Amino acid sequence: MLIYIHGFNSSPESFKASLLKSYADKINMPDMLEIPALSFDPVIAMDQLIRLVQKYQQHNGMRPLCFIGSSLGGYYATWLAEKFDSRVVLINPAVKPYELFEDYLGYNRNIYTGEEYMLTMEHVNQLRKYKVKDISKPDRYLLMVQTGDEVLDYNQALEKYAAVPSIVEEGGGHEFTGFDRHLETVLAFCGINCLKTYS
Questions:
Q1: Counting runs of H as helices and runs of E as strands, what totals does the chain give?
Q2: Is residue 15 assigned to a domain?
């Protein structure tokens, strides 16, 4: 089971989420992927994700679970991977989102959903609850960063996840340009054999 965690002010309709959905359909495994629409509120978003994992565990027993997190979703995915002892793919992950959020205090609008909301310092402080100090099992992680990320400093991710297997590409951007080139690698890391025909 794969759970894709979108970033701040994003949605299940984002670029990478759409590519993953299309690919899951292509290999006839649409039910292997969950892409929840997450609240802007960190506590509510994490509660949504934990409930999704618990629901999955109740119905699927010991089948493997893998998180794929982009930007802020990478921050959440790190915390979840440690909590549930699962594999995780991080795509241009935010390392210190609580510092970045201060630039977005006040009125915001989600460009995908049209949702309007107020971001407060309480939300910023909530993010600190999900900070992971040490990566317990680096081999469970796959880090993907592009040096042309115009939103986040990719060096922070390289430092935070220094012991983690990594794909580092020159140029690109925050959305991870050419992500479609890595779909088989991502799914294989998560335990999905893309060469197999599922039914």
A1: 7, 8
A2: yes
Q: What is the pLDDT of residues 84-120, one digit of tens each?
A: 999 999 999 999 999 988 888 999 999 888 999 999 9
DSSP conformational letter for 31: G
Domain membership flag for residue 197: no
Tell which residue, 117, 46, 123, 58, has the closest CA to residue 82: 46
State mean pLDDT over 125-136: 95
Tokens 């310092």 identify what position? 121
Whether the CB-CB separation of 77 and 86 falls below 8 Å is answered with: no
User: How many residues appear in the chain?
Assistant: 199
Secondary structure (3-state) at 136: coil
Sign of CA dihedral 94, 85, 189, 199: negative
Whole-structure pTM value: 0.93
For residue 40, give the amino acid letter. Answer: F
- Spatial separation of the C-alpha atoms in residues 86 and 142, rounded to whole Å: 12
User: Taking a C-beta distance cutoff of 8 angstroms, is the pair 11, 112 a contact?
Assistant: yes
* Nearest CA-CA partner of 98 in 76, 68, 127: 127
How many CB atoms neighbour CB 120 within 10 A?
Answer: 13
Segment (H or E) for 145: strand 141-146
Q: What is the CATH number of the domain that holds 23?
A: 3.40.50.1820
The span from the CA of 176 to the CA of 190, in Å, is: 19
Q: Which of 150, 151, 133 minimizes the C-alpha distance to 72? A: 151
Within-domain flag for 199: no
